[in-house]
Write a structure and sequence with these properties.
Helix content: 55-70%
CATH class of the largest domain: Mainly Alpha
Family: Belongs to the cation diffusion facilitator (CDF) transporter (TC 2.A.4) family.
Radius of gyration: 25 Å
Strand content: 5-15%
Number of strands: 4
Subcellular location: Cell membrane
CATH topology of the largest domain: Alpha-lytic protease prodomain-like
Protein name: Protein p34
Strand order of the largest sheet: 3-2-1-4
CATH architecture of the largest domain: Up-down Bundle
Distance between the termini: 46 Å
Keywords: Cell membrane, Membrane, Transmembrane, Transmembrane helix, Transport
Shape: elongated
GO cellular component, one term: plasma membrane
Structural class: alpha+beta
Length: 296
């Protein structure tokens, strides 16, 4: 099993444990705010399962029907996660409204708060693992899951503080009000997850820093060529797709041109191991005198 799949499987296990703890905290207290926290954990488990399925699909090699691979499956998972986060937020808003209409005192608040706090600590640890390893493995699904958990941790802290204030002040209306604030924060989190994933589905270019690295490598390693132009990039999961036109002297042999291309590809893959590179070689009369100039 690949590291990405192991982490995705771990997310399901952690999600189920956290869900059980937060559900127990809600059952002990009857708090609408703690219920909203538990409901978000339900989404965590569902999206962790979706992420695992997407990562398994993305890991499949290219085939006849999908010659560019299956990496974009992870973006679909992240978009699904964003949608489910938004649905959870709307459900929480509904419960918050009912709580505002019929506020009531909380039961066994200390026990519930301690259990919820323990679940939040576990979530915080796993959140750090997901974001760090997701970036290292270039997995949008893991990173999206990590950012979702980060929002869960933040809202859980707010919930614990708010419920404690509701008990200390004797104002039960604070509980549903806090649940509403949690829902608004979750809505914002869901939108950010969806927006970042849609950029991948729309074939957004690599970040400027990565593009600069690619241009510098071409300029430095394409000795024997004249220029490179029409450089295009896009990313899909862990894969980075790069294509450009390389202009060489009209007298350059096919073998020599191929050697130049191999040298460029090897240098780019040393920096971007998952890069898929396509180079179109052109004679010098096709030069545009723009793009990447080759250093002598």
């Amino acid at each position: 099993m690949s590291p990405t799949l192991k982490i995705a499987t771990g997310s399901i296990v952690v999600g189920v444990i956290v869900l059980a703890l937060k559900t127990l905290a809600w059952w002990l207290t009857g708090s609408v705010a703690l219920m909203s926290d538990a409901l978000e954990s339900t989404v965590n488990v569902a999206t962790a399962i979706a992420a695992l399925i997407a990562i398994r699909i993305a890991a499949k090699p290219a085939d006849h029907s999908h010659p560019y691979g299956h990496q974009k499956a992870e973006f679909f998972s992240a978009v699904l996660e964003g949608v489910m986060i938004i649905v959870a937020a709307l459900l929480i808003l509904r419960e918050s409204y009912h709580g505002l209409m019929h506020p009531r005192l909380l039961e066994a608040p200390m026990e519930g708060l301690l259990i919820n706090a323990g679940a939040s600590v576990l979530n915080a640890i796993w959140c750090a693992v997901l974001i760090r390893q997701g970036r290292r493995l270039k997995s949008p699904a893991l990173v999206a899951d990590g950012h979702h958990l980060l929002s869960d941790v933040v809202t859980s802290i707010g919930v614990i503080i708010g419920v404690a204030l509701a008990v200390a002040t004797g104002w039960p209306i604070l509980d549903p009000l806090l649940a509403g604030l949690v829902a608004l924060n979750i809505l914002w989190s869901g939108w950010k997850v969806m927006a970042s994933s849609l950029s991948g589905l729309m074939d957004e270019a690599v970040p400027d820093a990565t593009l600069t690295t690619i241009r510098d490598i071409i300029s430095d390693r394409a000795t024997g060529a004249i220029e490179a132009h029409d450089l295009r990039t896009r990313h899909a999961g862990s894969a980075t797709f790069i294509d450009f036109h390389l202009v060489v002297d009209g007298e350059t042999t096919v073998t020599r041109a191929h050697e130049i291309c191999d040298r460029i590809e090897a240098s780019i893959k040393a920096k971007l191991p998952e890069a898929q590179i396509t180079i179109h070689v052109e004679p010098e009369h096709k030069a545009k005198h723009s793009g990447v100039l080759v250093l002598d």
